[in-house]
């Protein structure tokens, strides 16, 4: 994302993309690291010159990645920034303001055959799930095209699509950052997650949402 931010500061146009074969300092939300095996995944950052908005930009990019891999797998989307496959993370998204633009970082696990022990239960790749090696170029083209298409949608359209295509938004038992437990109850008008708890509705502005499996 640093390289894309530098390009943005120099005037790189909307839709400019930086792609890495590997990352040495991959980052996720809240300073978490993103495991980036060499030649295993798609690691890209995109310059978006659109009006700075709330969480719907991240939601739109999740929809875009889900659509981009729909010919390969049937993925789910976990609010606000994870693309899931069989309850494990397939892709992550991070959006930051920098250089007068939004920088969208997308990490998508394509051809990894294994993950470090501490990630095996929570991460997966398309190759692990399907047994197929996926050409990076074909997926890159689709991710870029779908990202540019989805971020241009209106906020109401993005929120409606996310509610339709994410199993995590409504009726899911979840825990947020180990402190809030309840049942998801849709999105508010700004795209924040609503969770119904024994004491009322909580509006989740940020945080790690995890499904509570029975």
Protein architecture, described:
- The strands form 2 sheets. Strands 1-2-6-5-4-3 form a 6-stranded antiparallel β-sheet. Strands 10-9-8-7-11 form a 5-stranded antiparallel β-sheet, with no helix packed on it.
- The protein is globular, with a radius of gyration of 17 Å.
- Helices cover 24% and strands 31% of the residues.
- It has 2 domains: 2-165, Bira Bifunctional Protein, Domain 2 (BirA Bifunctional Protein, domain 2, 2-Layer Sandwich), CATH 3.30.930; 170-211, Roll (SH3 type barrels), CATH 2.30.30.100.
- The model has no long low-confidence stretch (mean pLDDT 91).
- It contains 5 helices and 11 strands.
- It starts with a helix and ends with a strand.
- The longest helix has 15 residues, at 136-150.
- With 214 residues, the protein is an alpha+beta fold.
- Helix 2 crosses helix 5 (155-165).
């Amino acid at each position: 994302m640093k390289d894309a931010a530098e390009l943005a500061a120099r005037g790189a146009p909307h839709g400019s993309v930086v792609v890495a074969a590997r990352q040495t300092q991959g980052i996720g939300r809240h300073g978490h690291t993103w495991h980036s095996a060499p030649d295993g995944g798609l690691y890209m950052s995109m310059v978006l010159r659109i009006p700075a908005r709330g969480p719907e930009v991240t939601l739109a990019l999740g929809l875009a990645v889900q659509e981009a891999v729909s010919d390969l797998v049937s993925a789910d989307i976990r609010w606000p920034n994870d693309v899931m496959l069989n309850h494990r993370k397939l892709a992550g998204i991070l959006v930051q303001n920098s250089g007068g633009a939004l920088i969208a970082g997308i990490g998508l696990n394509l051809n990894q055959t294994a993950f470090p022990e501490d990630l095996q239960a929570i991460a997966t790749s398309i190759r692990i799930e399907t047994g197929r090696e996926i050409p990076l170029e074909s997926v890159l083209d689709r991710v870029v095209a779908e990202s540019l298409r989805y971020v241009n949608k209106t906020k109401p359209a993005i929120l409606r699509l996310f509610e339709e295509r994410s199993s995590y938004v409504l009726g899911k038992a979840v825990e947020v950052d180990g402190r809030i437990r309840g049942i998801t109850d849709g999105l508010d008008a700004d795209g924040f997650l609503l969770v119904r708890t024994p004491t009322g509705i909580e509006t989740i502005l940020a945080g790690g949402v995890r499904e509570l499996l029975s």
